[in-house]
Amino acid sequence: MARILASRFERAVHLVTDDFFHSIRSGYIDPWKPESREQNEVVMGIVGDAATNYAAAGYVTIVDGIIIPGWFYEPLDDRFEGAGLEVEAAILRSSLETCMSRSRSRSSPRTLADPAVVEQLWLEFSRLDALERHVIDTDAHEPEGTADAVIDGWAR
Description:
The chain is mostly helical. The chain has one domain (2-155): Rossmann fold. It is built from 7 helices and 4 strands. The strands form 2 sheets. The protein has a two-stranded parallel sheet with strand order 1-2. Helix 3 packs parallel to helix 4 (73-82) and helix 5 (96-104) runs antiparallel to helix 6 (115-124). The longest helix has 20 residues, at 37-56. The chain starts with a helix and ends with a helix. The mean pLDDT is 90.
């Protein structure tokens, strides 16, 4: 969906946070493990720097990843706003069943497939408080429709 969304703008960048994590060739720690905190802060700082630089150069910049509120979301949002960038958010949320199904279909060795971890992350996105206004239910749309819903949400 993020690729589709990026293609709708004249100048756009699609940054996939997993690509930044997977660039680590040794010393990698699965980012959902408690001992990964330092690694995660480094990687997300680099993602934030890359996104800020692209956006400052005039690109609509879409950061695509599991950006958990209370852990990754706020530091990225603060970095972008601190750089004077206009920030719009879209939090895509599917049912737990859909998330489980998607995780089972992944085959890369560094992808999230442990059902207990998927459920824990899903729970993190079930209590968003003030961020709930940014949620788009992806079970209700195909990728094109989700991209439409994101653009509609940003317009509001």
